[in-house]
Amino acid sequence: MTLDERPALAMRGVTKTYVDGETTVTALADVTLDVFAGEMVAVMGTSGSGKSTLLAIAGALLAPTDGEIEVDGRPLGKLSARKLAQVRRERVGFVFQDYNLLPTLTSLENVALPLDLGGASSATARSEARRALAAVGLRERASSFPDELSGGQRQRVAIARAIVGRRRLLLADEPTGALDSVTGEAVLKGLRERADEGAAVVVVTHDARHAAWADRIVYLADGRIVDETRASQPESLLTGGTL
Amino acid sequence: MRKPREGVLVAALVAVPAAAIMLISTVMASQTPTLDEKLTAELGQTQAWVRVWDSAGNPVVQAPTVPEHVQSAVEGDGALEGTDEYTAAEVEALLPDGARTIDLLGASTFLHTPDASARATLTAGEAWDESLAGIYTLVDGSVPAADDEIMISPTLASVAGVAVGDAVELADTGEYTVVGILSPRVDGSGTVFTTSGAPVAVGALGEWGINGSMTWYLVDTPLSWSDVQELNRQGLVAYSREVVTGPPVTGGLTPIEQETDAALLGAGAVGLFAAMLLAGAAFAVTFRRQRHTMAMLGANGAHGSSLVAVGVARGLWLGLAGGVVGGVFGIALGLGWDYVLLHWGGAEGQYSTWGYHVNWSHLPLTAAYGALVGIVSAWVPALAASRLDVLGVLRGSTRPPRARRWTAVLGALAVIAGGAAMAWSARLLDQSLDLAGGAAYAQRSQASMILVAGAVLAFGGLALLVPVMLRLLGRAAVNAPLAGRIAVRDASRSIGRTAPVVAAIAVTIAISTGLILTLDRGRANLLDYWTPHAPVGDAIVELGFAIEGTADQADIVVAAAHDVLPDAEVTVFDAFLNFNGVEPGAVDMSAVPFLLAPEQNVCPELIDPEFSVSARERAADPRCDSREIDFGPWTSRIVVGDADDLAALAGTDPGDAALDALAGGGVVVFSSSFLDEGTVTVGFYDVDGGEFPDFGSLPDESLTLPGAFQQVAPGTMRVGLAMVSPETAAEIGWPSQPTSVLIDADEPITEQQQAQLSAAARMPDGSTPWVYVGGGPRDTYAAVVSAAIMGVALLLVFSSVSIALGLARADARQDDFTLASLGASPQLARSVAAWQGALIVGLAGAIGAPVGTAWVVVQGFSTLDRDYVLPWWWIVAASLALTGVVALAAWVFTKVPKAVHYRLAA
After folding, report:
1. Residue of A59, A97, A177 with shortest CB distance to B821
2. In terms of C-beta density within 10 A (0-12 exposed, 13-18 middle, 19 or more buried), how is residue B879 classed?
3. pLDDT digits (tens, 9 = 90+) for B246-278
4. Inter-axis angle of helices B779-811 and B4-30, nearest 10
5. Which of B732, B752, B773 is the last residue of a domain?
6. Is the CATH number of domain A9-239 1.10.1060.10?
7. Which among B773, B802, B830 is the end of a domain?
8. pLDDT digits (tens, 9 = 90+) for B61-86
9. How many CB pairs below 8 A link A and B?
10. Distance CA B557, CA B768 (A)
11. Can you tell me the ipTM of this complex?
């Protein structure tokens, strides 16, 4: 494993609070986390522990209430909405639990979306998208629409969309939640491979077996990082168990 | 309700046409008087009125409640022996003994002030009597106490600038003082009220007689139906309070029922159709968003029919709510409409209102209409939703509905059949031009029905093909820009939402295109055949209302024109003396010249009305050109002038032949029918002896002169139908004199300037020439109606598109997030909406405009006047402009997602 000196994702003292009427909910509290290229980090925690909020803030989808975030060394705090969109487009790839593919576009078009949105030529976007689809083993389903694919295939298309181009930060939110165990394992294997190829991967999961694919596991509780382990240490996680 | 916004949308979609229906109902009801209002307007507080229908006393039969609906009862001599027509005393002798009556005379007159002259209606008699309250309303001042005191109506006071206390002249009967303002319910150009003994009233009675101009109001004496029938036997008609409030079961004519307005029914049907389509689209989206719930219900044992029943019940309630709310809203709008008419609309003709009348029986019908729309529009999507793939939906696989092959085949067949029917209709219409009389009419009726069926079939077929078109477009959009690709694919996947909206807009475009093009063709035809009495905005003053001194009259009119309109160009035309205006004995009329058209040049139908030819035969016969027929086979309207006058009358530079004829002692004719191998015939008739031109006979004396035809430019006024030089006029031997003065003003002459011209041109004998200001062909009607149609169509199109886009945006919330997570600009949503708007309107235009145009093209086969060229470029440009404007509006009004809201995983 090779780690860059500069983290692909750096979160420093990140806090996120929501105000709902007179109630203030703290989703994240003073979270500090570095994820390096080539590293796969699993984020675990109970429901409502702040896992998805962490991922949304890391991916510039949500602004923190306090703290600093850097993606590839670029601070997000003072960027305009347009620049933040550019960061998401060029540096961050998302994989969602329910795939979030555009039902109106084919697999190829879905994968090419980030490049299309970035202004790449149609030929370049399609060529890169084909390569990404091939990487997840779906080259032959390029012209299929999402509703013509199985759940596993859809998630692989979502992964292809997340890795297309030169993005180094891959964020996956419960990517196996809607998949059977075999397909889920295949998806995690794919994410692992992306990390091995040099991407920084953050996977939110509540399944310990899936977390075992990671280099590092971060535990969240009530918005705080309460523990952090190297995945190879707790052997029990590789043999099963769910948080 | 779990989805209040969609519920409100559906109810609103139903409410809008429901409101329109009740508004129309209320407006129509308000334009129809109640029995009490009708009685008050007709009778005031009196019991009946009586008028002479047949002045010779021949018996008639009237409708009991509609005395204007009358037929002659028996052919034969009149009831009055030894008299030509009734006198007032004879009529009064026929009324019930001892009845107190108020007699009103109706005539016309001129009111003059030092600054203005205005034509007005004259009502002589005690119109201000308290028993006529309701017919006339005292507005200001007092009632006349002497024959030289008058009242005038508010309209006349405004037009002539007269107030209570002012002195005015009426016709040439002397000076009167305005002592009050009395308002009739309907007051066209203004009314003067005098006593029955006023000089102007006495003069008018002599001029107009009593036939149809006198009304006797029976103040206290009721008239029974038998009384009315007795009066009918004497040639009189009556409107009786007793008869109207209790019409007889038998006897009299049956009043003609007012026909239901087919256009209104058509508009209602289209509204119903469009509302169903749009509400159907809303329901389709609603059901799709509820598919998970429905799948859950299905998985738990709910039967498809139960799901349909739930959907239809929802449609029923929403439709019912929309119908009731819309109906009530329409009634409220009707109140506003009435208020506007009562306060600013005047009280004339079609714009009159009798008060705020609501036809409450229409409200439940409107509610039923809403319920019907709700049920039908919910039923189809509910049926589709009930057939969903439960397992697929629960697994997250929501395949879009496929364009069914049978639908596409059916659509294609319908388009072919509809097109064939329209072509067949065109052929039948064309063939009808070879038929004459009733056979032609019957064939045209049959062709019209086939045309309607063909258009509906073709349109329905195209609507069925919309899913296929969308799918093809979706496939073809591979290389389109991202926003366009998303828009097209979304439309092709969301047929339940898109296709009804496309169909609704297409039917709107088809109908509006058809109507506007039909109006445009009518306007073009009107302009082709328009022969103005005076150019638009200019004035023509006809002289010759007295035999003597028209030259002096022309001078007075010319001076008046220069006085009122200093910059106007004034032209005086001379023509042969009009024998109609000659007082008996003033001129020797034993040899009055008429220009005669040779019989072989006259349309046979003019000579023999029974003669019937087909339209094609008539068109092939230049003698039957309607422009020629309008001139008639003879004329005494011969202008006398020089080459400049000829140019003015021709509206163009005259041809050499005409100039040669004018200079060479010949006649220039503006209708070729008067020309016979280069000559024209002038016949001389003994008018004093009752001799006039007739077919089949030539007068004893006639003159053949060289002739030449001069084409008159379209739209040029016709002062005369032929022209000769002064020398030729002398040779013919009939006096000529100034007959018309044309006042060509820089700016269109206003109503006030018209009144000033009339006042300034008063003759020494007190008479007033009639100043006619050209209003042009009534193509303003086409322009106004076209603009109104376009406005309504645009409103419908924009409403429909906004509904479609609103539904599409509601569908796209998840996609918005996905795109945002991928770094899309928030503006992408706007671009997608613009593409969606353009796609929907473009597709609807591509369907609707050809159908509407084809309708007009086929209708064109019903006439041989096929010069009208369809404004193809206008149609294409309007379609593109509409598409562009909708796209722009969609871009502008689409909300940009303000922030990315990450949907947190459960």
Report:
1. A59
2. buried
3. 877 666 666 555 545 555 566 667 667 777 777
4. 160
5. B773
6. no
7. B773
8. 888 888 888 887 754 444 444 446 78
9. 92
10. 10
11. 0.82
